Amino acid sequence: MSQPHRTPDGLDSAGTGVAVGEDGLARTPWALGSAMLREYYDHEWGMPVRDERGLFERLSLEGFQSGLSWATILAKRENFRLAFAGFDPDTVAAFDEADVERLLADAGIIRHRGKITATIGNARATAALRDHGGLAELIWSHQPATTPRPRVVEEIPTRSPESEALAKRLRAAGFRFVGPTTMFALMEAVGIVDTHLMGSHRRGASGVWPG
């Protein structure tokens, strides 16, 4: 999932480095926005995801986040999983107009027709990619040679040449809601880049990059 909002709502972190929680551990400031965000930051965000289903779920949720806070999506994640059959690409690819109407009536998710139909279309595109190496190979082929080493929040990028290239490749393959900023957030979430602030106790935790 996402590089959540850079900071939790109401926290002015311009120019700030790591924030130390009550447990004495240093984190990127957005992780202290709530217990939910802290748990996500400490155990999931930035850890490698290399399987098709896991990447399809995260790509889908990144698309639903567009224009919203990550906390909103994270709070609804289990509802999304129920509504979209655990994000099994083959099952979602078979969704029809009746499923679209069902999802539009589901108050547990984001009821946005464009995002719902994009997710179904992206499932079909995911299945089609299997004849060309697959979704995981396509996404991870855009891992850069180096990763950012931000000391303060202002130094965390929101896009990169690699995320721009990934967005272009996915769009060419029929995916939607996969812009460069959204794809950079995906790359952060699944360990392709590491944007934990220097000094965070999670820096380097993925094993993909040194601390």
UniProtKB/TrEMBL annotation:
Stretch list, region Disordered: 1-20
Source organism (scientific name): Nesterenkonia halobia
Name of this protein: DNA-3-methyladenine glycosylase I
Pfam families: Adenine_glyco
SUPFAM superfamilies: DNA-glycosylase
